[in-house]
Design brief:
Shape: globular
Largest sheet: 5 strands, mixed
Order of helices and strands: EEEEEEEEEHEEEEH
Oligomer: single chain
Structural class: mainly beta
Number of helices: 2
Strand order of the largest sheet: 1-2-3-4-8
Distance between the termini: 39 Å
Number of strands: 13
Strand content: over 45%
Helix content: under 10%
Length: 191
């Protein structure tokens, strides 16, 4: 059993003149906790629970309004889907979407600015998979292009490697395009 820190962001997210630390920690690649702490005292300000792995966070002003959002990619283990999570750095508490009547003691539903589950592709659904879900394998925020590029992978046991495609979103968080890699196209043609 171990807990590993995934990312640390430091800033005055509340604009109250005091710095906060936002850190995400994962327990053995399972549930992820995002903690906002007072950077001076270390006191917990808020906590966000996510049922699955999250990649390191990127802090960015998506709306151009001076509000910092924190962006993660990862996997929601409840839905077995890749996900993109955007939280307002000022308001980060509660839990990510769960299925049905599921609840987590001590956590209310979170108010994410954006939460998207990325469905598996037809290719991913059609072959036997070691991992029965897809995952965000990385993402890049490109402020000059007002774009988020999300790398999504699906593992294929048949050919023993990940097939990958990219989802491109504008800073308005609307999908602008989905682009498969060459390996993805070749695998689809063989399949």
């Amino acid at each position: 059993n171990f807990i590993a820190t995934q990312s640390i962001c430091l800033g005055d997210f509340d604009k109250d003149g005091r710095p906060e630390v936002v850190l995400s920690a994962v327990h053995q690649n399972e549930a992820c906790l995002v903690l906002k702490l007072d950077a001076i005292t270390g006191k917990e300000i808020s906590c966000y629970y996510h049922p699955g792995h999250l990649s390191p966070a990127v802090a960015v002003d998506l709306g151009g309004d001076g509000t910092i959002e924190l962006v993660w990619g990862g996997v929601n283990d409840i839905f077995r889907r890749a996900c993109i999570v955007v939280l307002d750095a000022r308001e980060m508490s509660g839990h990510a979407p769960l299925e049905g009547d599921e609840a987590i003691d001590g956590f209310e539903n979170a108010r994410e600015k954006f939460y998207a589950l990325i469905p598996r592709t037809v290719l991913g659904e059609s072959y036997l998979c070691r991992n029965p879900w897809n995952m965000v394998d990385g993402f890049t925020v490109v402020p000059t292009d007002s774009m988020v590029r999300v790398k999504v992978s699906e593992h294929c046991d048949y050919i023993n490697y990940f097939t990958t495609y990219y989802v491109y979103l504008g800073f308005d968080l609307v999908v602008s395009s989905v682009q498969p890699t060459q390996e993805f196209v070749q695998t689809a043609q063989k399949w």
